[in-house]
């Protein structure tokens, strides 16, 4: 099993789109899958540990079990947001499909089976993105 903290990996470099991350990506996925099999809420609890803000943004949930955990624990106050971009846009941003990684549950586990409250399109149109985010923020403010 591979965890960044226990194996001396540079956590910040694992967060970017570098070759460094890609070197360890499949091992990290495997380690994460083992953790989730043992405890589906492991990463969700870690994400909220110590958080006391009235609004949290939990980015990068990867599986239906993550969404279900937040809904079970926090109920109706949970708002799910999916950010999408076309494959063409993603390629312009230097994304390259890697079989066995980009088609794994860790990357596409939420592509089906979740009714998102919000879908934000991020294809490079800054004005459109700003408008979508402003609508989301205003809605959230209305719930405080």
From TrEMBL:
Source species, domain of life: Eukaryota
Family annotation (InterPro entries): P-loop_NTPase, Pmev_kin_anim
UniProt keywords, alphabetically: ATP-binding, Cholesterol biosynthesis, Cholesterol metabolism, Cytoplasm, Kinase, Lipid biosynthesis, Lipid metabolism, Nucleotide-binding, Steroid biosynthesis, Steroid metabolism, Sterol biosynthesis, Sterol metabolism, Transferase
Top-level EC class as recorded in UniProt: transferase
Presence of the UniProt keyword Secreted in the record: no
Pfam families: P-mevalo_kinase
Cellular localisation: Cytoplasm, Cytosol
Keyword flag Lipid biosynthesis: yes
BP terms from Gene Ontology: cholesterol biosynthetic process; isopentenyl diphosphate biosynthetic process, mevalonate pathway
A GO molecular function held by the record: phosphomevalonate kinase activity
GO CC annotation: cytosol
Pathway: Isoprenoid biosynthesis; isopentenyl diphosphate biosynthesis via mevalonate pathway; isopentenyl diphosphate from (R)-mevalonate: step 2/3
Known EC number: 2.7.4.2
Protein's name in the database: Phosphomevalonate kinase
Organism: Brachypteracias leptosomus
């Amino acid at each position: 099993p591979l965890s960044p903290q226990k194996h001396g990996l540079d956590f910040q470099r694992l967060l970017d789109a570098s070759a460094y991350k890609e070197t360890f990506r499949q091992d990290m996925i495997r380690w994460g899958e083992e953790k989730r099999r043992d405890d589906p809420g492991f990463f969700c609890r870690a994400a909220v540990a110590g958080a006391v803000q009235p609004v949290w943004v939990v980015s990068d949930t990867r599986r239906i079990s993550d969404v279900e955990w937040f809904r079970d624990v926090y109920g109706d106050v949970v708002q799910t947001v999916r950010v999408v971009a076309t494959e063409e846009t993603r390629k312009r941003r230097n994304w390259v499909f890697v079989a066995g990684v980009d088609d794994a549950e860790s990357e596409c586990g939420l592509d089906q089976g979740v009714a998102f409250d919000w879908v934000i399109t991020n294809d490079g149109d800054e004005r459109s993105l700003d408008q979508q985010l402003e609508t989301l923020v205003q809605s959230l403010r209305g719930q405080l």
